[in-house]
Specification:
Elements lengths: L2 E2 L6 E2 L1 E2 L7 E2 L2 H11 L6 E6 L3 E6 L8 E5 L3 E4 L20 E2 L6 E2 L2 H4 L5 H9 L18 H12 L1 H8 L5 H4 L3 H11 L1 H6 L6 H14 E4 L6 E4 L7 E2 L5 E5 L5 E5 L10 E2 L8 H11 L7 H4 L11 E2 L7 E5 L2 E4 L5 E2 L1 H18 L3 H11 L8 H13 L5 H6 L2 H21 L4 H24 L5 H17 L8 H21 L5
Parallel strand pairs: 13-16
Antiparallel strand pairs: 1-2, 3-4, 5-6, 7-15, 8-12, 9-10, 11-12, 14-15, 17-18, 18-19, 19-20
Helix pairs in contact: 4-5, 4-9, 7-9, 12-13, 12-14, 13-14, 14-16, 16-17, 17-18, 17-19, 18-19
Length: 512
């Protein structure tokens, strides 16, 4: 088969080995055209096996930061448990600012949102049943439990292409059946939709299957307050790993963006983390079991020490100074063989989590928590690390002048905590781009301030400023795909400004 070279148009027979869709007359022209062709040449291919079903593998070598997929959602809607939100923009609304849709009565924020395409189908079906009346705007409203499921169901007639793509997604209907959540969903969604909207075209089983698709494939999109849920077609094919190699971000328009969080070789499987990678193993496994209906068997989950980090371990409160690790439903000291019942451990962790929630609102509260719980929680325990992350960010938080007011010992503590946390994240959560980026930015800021104080005292701080610059560059690099409306996007923008400033300072030799 002959075609035209993608660069010069000359007749030729050789194709791009990856996509097989573009012809080239020479290797030279293929290389020259790559910058343009890369945008349309798929970075992945779809494979299948009996264990996980469909999954994605890299179809070419990928470098850190390479975008693997950018995709618009098939359907968006409010989360299942939410106070009233505008069904146009999905932002929160209040009783004194909401306006009723003139056709169906759903509370909206503006005339523009009433006319939103995403609202059209539920508007029609709501108007046909006599309209919607919502009077309470503070607590979660039960009617919103059905909105996203209803929107998915309505695509069957309004947009058959979307319906076909939605129907191919996993629902785990059989696994969910007869669970407490399934029984609740059956009552409040599957029975409610036909009765309330006076529509008999869907059976209970069909509605529950679609609701399962929403649960399994929905992505929380943090672009609104509260966050909304979106379902994407190809995005759902990324498999899970607690040691993922792909990071997930969003554009300001709500597209989902997946990009390489490390160099990935052609043929490697592509994975994201479906849960919070900075939780302990038991917490991650429980979340995955409840929301995604499977048990993770990644290397981190199979290792009771979590790759030697002891991220879930507890201190053995005996003179042996050993660590308690989970085994056989109980916890056992690796030094003195002491056994602690699981119920006692759960009680201890619940108390620690409650204290962390109450105390990490201030620098002093974080310091008090660490002192209060360091006897039972090792330095790397996930609750301790959560508090340390907050502490590292709260030292000098707010205006840059606040960091200048921080005592030397707190400034040094901030830098030390950032280094410790970055090392741990690199080991346990290699694709957690927001955590990487934010910690790099905090360390950059701490080093810059330490250098400033050193310069004032007549010291040569070239090395500190070089390190500060490097961490600012890393912050911008890790947060480069974050939407501008989020805190992380604003940190990225500031990191880029700081990079330029530091480069000028270093070029001008203002370090002595």
């Amino acid at each position: 088969m002959e075609g035209s070279c993608g660069l010069c148009g000359a007749p030729c027979e050789k194709k791009c080995a990856n996509c097989r869709g573009v012809f080239y007359c020479s290797v030279k022209h293929q290389r020259e055209h790559w910058r343009s062709h890369k945008k349309s040449c798929p970075a992945f291919s779809v494979c299948r096996d009996d264990k996980v079903g469909r999954f994605l593998v890299a179809s070419r070598n990928l470098k850190f930061g390479d975008v693997i997929l950018k995709e618009a959602p098939l359907v968006t809607g409010p989360s299942q448990f939410t106070a009233p939100v505008c069904l146009g923009c999905l932002q929160e609304i209040h009783e004194n600012t909401a306006t009723k849709c003139s056709r169906c009565g759903w509370p909206m924020c503006s005339q523009e949102c009433q006319e939103a395409e995403t609202h059209a189908e539920e508007c029609r079906i709501s108007a046909a049943r006599g309209g919607i009346t919502i009077e309470h705007f503070i607590c979660p409203h039960p009617i919103y439990q059905c909105v996203l499921t209803l929107r998915c169901l309505l695509t069957e007639r309004s947009c058959p292409d979307k319906w076909q793509q939605l129907s191919q997604l996993e629902s785990h209907s059989t696994s969910r059946k007869d669970s407490l959540q399934w029984l609740s969903d059956r009552e409040h969604v599957a029975k409610f939709i036909p009765r309330f909207f006076k529509e008999q075209r869907w059976t209970e089983d069909e509605i529950l299957r679609v609701l399962g698709i929403v649960y399994i494939n929905g992505h929380e999109v943090p672009l609104t307050e509260p966050a909304y849920v979106a379902i994407y077609a190809t995005a759902s094919l990324f498999e899970h790993s607690c040691l993922a190699n792909v990071a997930k971000s969003f554009t300001d328009a709500g597209e989902i963006v997946f990009w390489a969080a490390q160099d990935i070789r052609k043929g490697d499987r592509l994975s994201i983390c479906y849960t919070d990678a900075l939780w302990g193993t038991q917490q991650r496994q429980e979340h995955l079991s409840q929301t995604k209906m499977f048990t993770c068997s990644c290397p981190r989950c199979l290792d009771v020490t979590e790759l030697g980090s002891n991220f879930s371990a507890l201190n053995c409160e005996t003179p042996c100074a050993g660590l308690l690790l989970a085994k056989d439903s109980n916890w056992h000291c690796q030094v003195c063989s002491r056994t602690v019942p699981k119920a006692d451990v759960e009680s201890l962790l619940e108390k620690a989590a409650q204290d962390a929630s109450k105390m990490k609102s201030s620098v002093q509260g974080c310091l008090d928590f660490i002192r209060m719980h360091e006897k039972s929680l090792p330095p790397n325990h996930f609750i301790m690390i959560d508090v340390k992350c907050v502490l590292a960010q709260k030292i000098g938080e707010g205006h840059p002048q606040e960091l200048q007011k921080a005592p030397d010992e707190l400034l040094e503590m901030k830098a030390r905590l950032c280094r410790e946390i970055l090392d741990l994240i690199a080991l346990l959560a290699p694709a957690e781009n927001r955590s990487h980026g934010c910690m790099h930015f905090e360390l950059h800021a701490a080093l810059a301030e330490i250098a400033r104080r050193g310069v004032e005292n007549g010291l040569n701080c070239q090395d500190l400023l070089d390190k500060s610059l490097w961490h600012a560059e890393q912050a911008a690099r890790w947060l480069s795909q974050e939407p501008s409306v989020l805190v992380e996007g604003k940190i990225c923008a500031q990191a880029r400004i700081n990079v330029d400033t530091l480069r000028v300072v270093l070029q001008n030799g203002l370090t002595k």
